[in-house]
């Protein structure tokens, strides 16, 4: 019984170690996102457009359709394509939003 209890305790304490941070590209930017009618969005109070193949990831890292995203001034990480369109958006959890966005030099390490 003690061995089973020790094994269970070890398994429970090891679970947080299995949590994986979402990998964001080195050139990721942070801003406040307000969805609009596709492809129009607002980032940091400025009108922008989503790329035709844009992807929006929710807090669980699952893809959300642009029409399904609700809210205003959501804290997000995002990337911009070569044409200036927003191509990827990650809606951040409160814990992720509290973390400092790494610089390109820090991400390269």
Question: Overview of this structure, please?
Answer:
The protein is of the alpha+beta class and 109 residues long. It has one domain (24-108): OB fold (Dihydrolipoamide Acetyltransferase, E2P) (Beta Barrel), CATH 2.40.50. 21% of the residues lie in helices and 35% in strands. It has three helices and six strands; from the N terminus they run αββββββαα. It has a five-stranded mixed beta barrel. Strand 1 (29-35) and strand 2 form a beta hairpin. The longest helix has 13 residues, at 2-14. It is elongated. The mean pLDDT is 84.
Distance between the termini: 46 Å
Radius of gyration: 18 Å
Q: Approximately what portion of the residues adopt beta-strand conformation?
A: 25-35%
Structural class call reads alpha+beta
Helix content: 10-25%
CATH class: Mainly Beta
Q: Order of strands side by side in the largest beta sheet?
A: 1-2-3-6-5
- Which term fits the overall shape? elongated
From the 3D structure, determine the CATH topology. Answer: OB fold (Dihydrolipoamide Acetyltransferase, E2P)
> How large is the count of helical segments?
3
Overall pLDDT score: 84
- Along the chain, the helix and strand elements come as HEEEEEEHH
Topology, number of strands = 6
Question: What descriptive keywords fit this protein?
Answer:
109 residues; alpha+beta; OB fold (Dihydrolipoamide Acetyltransferase, E2P); five-stranded mixed β-barrel; 6 strands
